[in-house]
Amino acid sequence: MLETNPFSILAETVSPFAMQSFIIAMVTLIALGTIIQMIHHKNLTYFLNNAKKALCGQCYGMLVQF
Predict the structure, then answer these.
(1) pLDDT higher than threshold 90 for residue 56
(2) Distance between CA 61 and CA 38 in Å, rounded?
(3) What percent of the chain shows pLDDT beyond 90?
(4) Three-state secondary structure readout of the chain
């Protein structure tokens, strides 16, 4: 079991460019799907509103210190 590498056959049959392209496509599709799901479920607006509140709170805190 440990003497053979099952991926060595894959490396012989599929070009490295095809494997790299597949990995890049999968990462891109996962990121795109996550963004679409966040927009669909309205999570994106929640996170953006919290980021705005956090930034405004920091600005307010800096004004109070002066």
Answers:
(1) no
(2) 30
(3) 30
(4) CCCCCHHHHHHHHCCHHHHHHHHHHHHHHHHHHHHHHHHHCCHHHHHHHHHHHHHHHHHHHHHHHC
Report d(CA 29, CA 51) in Å as an integer: 25
Distance CA 33, CA 43 (A): 13
Band (38; pLDDT cuts 50, 70, 90): confident
For the chain, domain boundaries: 6-65
pLDDT reading at 29 higher than 60? yes
Token pair recorded at residue 29: 């599709």
Backbone dihedral region for residue 14 (phi beyond 0: left; psi -120 to 50: alpha; all else: beta): beta
1, two tokens: 């079991």
Please tell me the distance from the alpha carbon of residue 14 to that of residue 66, in angstroms, as a whole number: 64
